[in-house]
Every structure is written in structure tokens, then in C-alpha cells.
Automatic annotation (TrEMBL):
InterPro entries: ABC_BtuC-like (IPR037294), ABC_TroCD (IPR001626), Anch_rpt-typ_ABC_trnsprt_perm (IPR022392). Belongs to the ABC-3 integral membrane protein family. Its main location: membrane. Pfam families: ABC-3. This is Anchored repeat-type ABC transporter permease subunit. PANTHER family: ABC-TRANSPORTER METAL-BINDING PROTEIN, IRON TRANSPORT SYSTEM MEMBRANE PROTEIN HI_0360-RELATED. It is a multi-pass membrane protein. It is found in: Cell membrane; Membrane. The chain crosses the membrane at residues 12-32, 65-83, 95-117, 123-149, 170-193, 199-215, 222-240, 246-267. CDD domains: TM_ABC_iron-siderophores_like. Gene3D superfamilies: ABC transporter involved in vitamin B12 uptake, BtuC (1.10.3470.10). Keywords: Membrane, Transmembrane, Transmembrane helix, Transport.
Amino acid sequence: MIEFFTEPWTHVFMQRAFLVVLMSGIVCGVIGTHVALRGMAFIGDAVAHSVFPGIAIAFVLKTSLVLGGIVAGLITALSVAVFSQNRRLKEDTVIGVFFAAAFGLGIVVMSTAPGYGGSLESFLFGSVLGIGNADVITVAIAGAVLLLITGALHKEFVTVGLDRETARSVGLPIFWLDLAMYAMVTVAIVISIQAVGNILVLALLITPAACARLLTDRIGVMMVMAPVIGAVSGLTGLYLSYAFNLAAGGLIVLTATAVFIACWVFAPRHGLLSRRTSRTAAVVSANP
């Protein structure tokens, strides 16, 4: 048992993988809490697709994939925020248009690069074991900046998430706060893509926050629980992938999903068993 926990740390590539997964889990847990509160899961999926052209262009030009993804995601986020101001178009419609266009552009750009098939597979499903020192530093810096911004704008984000009309009536800049949230989701997704891949990254953003939502009614507690669940799920999935020689990204997501199912069933107040017990008690009290 001791060897199971210590052996992976003897490999430098695993040390880097653990650090990136840990940081990604924490950052996605914090940002994902605001995403869950605002019902922005579709936006998270759209951003995950919209970073593709930036990563593809960066791959072709042999520059930083993280920087390329962030630039592409921010451009798409800005486009969505601007075009959504037209009241004839709903936000999810605009998102659908731009994320499909971005993903299509990414495929076209990637198809021009040598080794297209292997590179696309790595992007879609993650390559956490191939992370370099520069990637670890980039994720650490970007994650720290995200957490600082989230802390500075926490009250504003919560107000907008709970009641947009109230937020507008008290004079909060809704457009700029929306744009800031899109940008933060973009960065969180880009720094996590290497860990779980483009297809699965939404789970790292949403699932820990959904678990925390089932476990508590307090937003402050959610902000703590979600990153803890994300980090623990990531580390556990990575350990299992090393022990059984299976895909790291898939096991990370499956671990987080297992935690979600456990919360859905056993959560103290909002779990399936708790609700059934409450209904039974209510029936008994009504029919003594």
C-alpha cells in the first residue's frame, strides 16, 4: 500500500502530472462554482471547443499551446458577449454559432500540420503524462491569477449569478462581469485541457461544483468544497491510471463522477436517501 502511494512520485513526469492535475482541480473547482450558480454549463462546453483554433494555430507555429488557446477563447468569449447584446438572439444561440465555427476552424488548421492524427488525439483526450516544466509554470501562474481575480470579484459574481435584475438595479456592470467570467472560464479550461483533454474538460469544471451544490447550501462552503473535490478526484484518477495503465483523463473524470453519484445518493440534506427519509417521516407524522 505504501509503495502504491510513493512509487509514482519517483518519476519526474508523474510529479509534473500530479502538480498540474492538482492545480487544475483547484482552479476548475473555484471557477466551476460560479458556473454552476449561473447555469453556464453550456458556456463551459462552448469555450472548450472555442479554444481549439488557438491551440491548433499554436501547434502549427510551434508556440505555447496554452497561450494560443487562451487568445482564441478570449476572442470567442468577447464575440459572444458582444453579439448577445442583440435581443433578437438568445445567448445560447450565439454561443452555438461561435463555438461550432471555432471548432471547425481548428480542424481545418490542424489538418495542415504534420502528425495531424496524433496531435488531434492528444488534444481531444489529454496528455497529462507528457507535460513539461514550462507547462507546469504556466498553469501555476495562470491559476494563481484566476484565483486572485475570483476573490476580488466574488461578491459581484455571486450577485449576478443569483439575480441579474437586482445586480443591474444596483448598478453593477453586467456586461463586463459576464465578459470577465467568460474569460476566466476560458483560462481555467485551457490550463486543464492537458490533463483531461478537450472532450472531458467540462467534467472537471462542472462535476466538483455539482457535488458541492448537493452537499451544502452555503456559497462560501461550496467555494471550498468544490476545489477540494476536484483536486482529490484528479489525484485519485491519476494514481489509478498509473497503477492499472489506463487513460488518465478518463479515470479522472470517472472518479469525479463517482463522487457525484455518491453525493446524489448520500448527501445529508439533498441526497436521495435523505429526501426519502424526510418524506417517510412526514407521512408518519401526518398519519399517526
